[in-house]
Amino acid sequence: MNGGKAVVGAVAAPFVAVFVLLLVVTVVLGPRAAAGDPDCPVSADVLVDAGGSTFVDKGGAANAWGGYSNGRIPLSELCAIPWAPRELLRCDATAALEVLNGAFRADFGGDLAVSDGYRDYDRQVATKKAKGVLAATPGTSNHGWGLAADFASNVNRYDSAQYRWMKANGARFGWFHPTWAEPGHPDYAKPEPWHWQFVPGTATQTEPGACLGGNRDLGAAAAAERGWTGSQWTCLEQLWTRESDWNHLAQNPTSSAYGIPQALPGSKMAGHGADWQTNPATQIAWGLDYIAGRYGTPCEAWAHSEQTGWY
């Protein structure tokens, strides 16, 4: 609705949407390989919500691999994180994190800081002593499998744009936030926005630019349900490209306009869903209703935008 293109701090590129409805994917221990790595073992019976980048962490031996004990994995089986070389992860987790970091850096202007990766058993003992209830019992931590990382760069704040970005995009790269650290979830136990875990075999983006779906694809499907195809879709695509580049985290620097349709204020979209800040489907549904109610069609809205610079 706001004239001109919005930005999100240093965010310049449109995000590719993660799945927008609750999608539960069961990854079963067995011969199925992780994307891009036929030799990569897959975690056991993991329930994944790609729409919120969350997963149900069974913990303990459910994440075991390679026949190793927790915290006693040979360093030769792990790979250093290039921009945080003191931190190690299982090599497929490091590779996925590199791709995620590229997207994060493009949108926020810097690397995703990693404060903790693999913890051997002795380090788990020291961490438990220092952090108490916030740390797992030594020998059970997911850090001990090389599948968990603690992030900084404001991802460690539930109320930050960076945390919301991870929630919206982590699943694309196989990185998820455990439900036990999700405020409001029945599993919630500890406030750890910084703790994220890699779930092998779940990534939909294994290299920059290679993703399933996208916000435009989602918009096209929603518009088609209203019969807005052909020239009407062209008008809508041009309108929201001008407004936000189809970026569902876009904020206008001079107003409170927000999201793909640049609702002003963004909180208007709350009536379509409490997840209006991070869910492109919620934003698109609100935007289409707004256009239908105020202009009738996307082409009428586009014509108004052409004349006035806003819609």
For the CA atoms, what is the radius of gyration? 21 Å
Q: Please summarize the sheet with the most strands.
A: 7 strands, mixed
Order of helices and strands: EEEEEHEHEHEEHHHH
At CATH's second level, what is the architecture of the largest domain?
Answer: 2-Layer Sandwich
> What integer is the average pLDDT?
80
The stretches of 5 or more residues where confidence is low (pLDDT under 50) are 4-45, 207-213
Strand fraction band?
5-15%
Multimerization status: single chain
**The number of domains:** 2
CATH class annotation of the largest domain: Alpha Beta
Q: Using the alpha-carbon principal axes, give the shape.
A: elongated
Number of alpha- plus pi-helical segments: 7
- Please report the total strand number as a whole number: 9
